[in-house]
Amino acid sequence: MSEIPTVRFLSNEGDLIKEPNIKPSNEVLIRSYKAMLLTRLVDERMIVLQRQGMISFALSSLGEEACAVASCAALDFNDWLYPQYREAGLLFYRGFSVKDYIHHMFSDGKDIILGRQMPNHFGSKNLNVVTVSSPIGTKIPHAAGAAYGMKILKDKTIAVCYFGEGATSEGDFHAGINFAAVRKVPAIFFCRNNGYAISTPAREQFASDGIAPKGVGYGIPAYKIDGNDFFAIFETVHNARKDCLLGKGPFLIEAMTYRLGAHSTSDDPTRYRSEEEVKKHWEECPLKRLRLYLEKQGLWDKDKEQETKELYLNEINEAIEEAKKTAPPPIESLFEHVYFELPRHLKKQLQECLRFYKKDA
Ligand SMILES: Cc1ncc(C[n+]2csc(CCOP(=O)(O)OP(=O)(O)O)c2C)c(N)n1
Ligand SMILES: [Mg+2]
């Protein structure tokens, strides 16, 4: 069995065990910590709102926030991102507003994708973030194809595709990685191995030693990293991006992390894993590790933490109040943005819909 060492720099106590070669600036570290904190606070509120019946569904990135944020911080703004659904942090890092995010979670009339997706299936054309789709793994061939386009056009950009370890059991993973490898495209395939695909533990999903050896099988460089270590993610993604632009891509990165929360609001993890197991993984919490590091460097303290939390919670509360008052998307919007001219059969369906709506009003 192939042995790929795990890249790790940051201890659970927030000390650097060894110096990374590529280190983010203090400004990037603080911006990233804030994006991780914001992700956690928004996620917490969304789960409560779902329990109160205000929104239909919610997924959280609890314990995995560093994967999206540290990787995004190491990229260029023009790189295209293909997230799964636990990557809200990359939107916040790129400047997506809390209001826009919460309108999306409410699927209301101000949701930029007009309620056409489930909550947590965000996207932003302005921020080069391709909208999440529910079928697992489908974005892997899309990212490979987009990166091939970038190569042909000689763009100085790359595509980064995020997915869980469960997605690697899909055919799309193999088709996408193989295509990307053969065409030597500038892409990073970033796998968050959080130990579970809903209730199925990783040990029941594949017989290989994790995901990284699968990259070796397809002939591409593969890394295994501590996915809760901001510095390990930042350096690995930074180097992989640089090498992608030199024609040495694609890369497969397996980030070892842990899903501290439930899969989604439709899941009860107490049915398939113990509290002791979860408690043990809290020690590796990526937010705590980065906060302790920042505190030890004199870049953060209790007052800043308190002020930032208050600021974000106010922003979240305001956004929720606004979303509660926002009407759902107009029924006509269901028929928009696909055809330049609406075909006859859809015109008929639209008329029927409007008739029903009028009847209800
Ligand atoms: C093709 C497909 N099969 C099954 C599902 C149902 N499903 C939704 S999430 C999920 C687990 C995915 O696990 P993983 O890729 O490890 O991501 P994680 O949720 O752990 O972040 C499954 C099976 C789906 N959405 N799409
Ligand atoms: Mg998983």
From TrEMBL:
Cofactor(s) for this UniProt protein: thiamine diphosphate
Any Pfam family: E1_dh
GO biological process: branched-chain amino acid catabolic process
Coiled coil: none
The keyword Oxidoreductase appears for this protein: yes
Lineage: superkingdom: Bacteria
Reactions accelerated catalytically: N(6)-[(R)-lipoyl]-L-lysyl-[protein] + 3-methyl-2-oxobutanoate + H(+) = N(6)-[(R)-S(8)-2-methylpropanoyldihydrolipoyl]-L-lysyl-[protein] + CO2
One example GO MF annotation: branched-chain 2-oxo acid dehydrogenase activity
EC number annotated for this UniProt entry: 1.2.4.4
Domain (Dehydrogenase E1 component): residue spans on this chain: 33-331
Cross-referenced InterPro entries: Alpha-ketoacid_DH_E1_comp, DH_E1, THDP-binding
Oxidoreductase keyword on record: yes
Key words of the record: Oxidoreductase, Pyruvate, Thiamine pyrophosphate
Family per record: Belongs to the BCKDHA family.
Function statement: The branched-chain alpha-keto dehydrogenase complex catalyzes the overall conversion of alpha-keto acids to acyl-CoA and CO(2). It contains multiple copies of three enzymatic components: branched-chain alpha-keto acid decarboxylase (E1), lipoamide acyltransferase (E2) and lipoamide dehydrogenase (E3).
Listed name of the protein: 2-oxoisovalerate dehydrogenase subunit alpha
Source species: Candidatus Criblamydia sequanensis CRIB-18
